[in-house]
Amino acid sequence: MVAPPRVWWRPLDRLERTWLLLALGWCLVLFAMMPIWLAFGRHNVPATTYRASAAQFRQRVEEFVQKYQVGVEKGIPIVEPPPGDIYLLARQWQWYPILKLKKGQTYRLHISSIDVQHGFSIQPANLTFQILPEYVYVITLTPLESGEFSIICNEFCYIGHHVMIGRILVTD
Ligand SMILES: [Cu+2]
Q: Span 67-93, mean pLDDT?
């Protein structure tokens, strides 16, 4: 039997060492970006979450609608609340109610689903969130432009997904 050579590996040549160092350096950059981006990235939406059952959330939304309803459009109430806590409910296949907000005021938008997962996407601002049943997302929101904004669902939620379009009206 022949014993294996004592040194079975080849020492790194210059080229190989350079590539390894470059790769390691890039790994460290990417690793550092995670905490840096979390702290300084401007993509982070100021949001908190809490748990609420579908029945609890639905009841809160109904109370909110009863208190601030100013109209109705195609069976969906239009609600004009003062700055502060406002509610939006996602279900197959609508966003409920239609929110009427004032430009420059700050709102705390509570969003949840009462059935399946939906995607909340404000157009044309292109904000997007995953909306899950049993969890309420609270987004601090200050509309900076007046106008009419559409909310589309960007998470396929079965047969009526494409008609799930809501609205936010922002007035001066
Ligand atoms: Cu949906």
A: 94
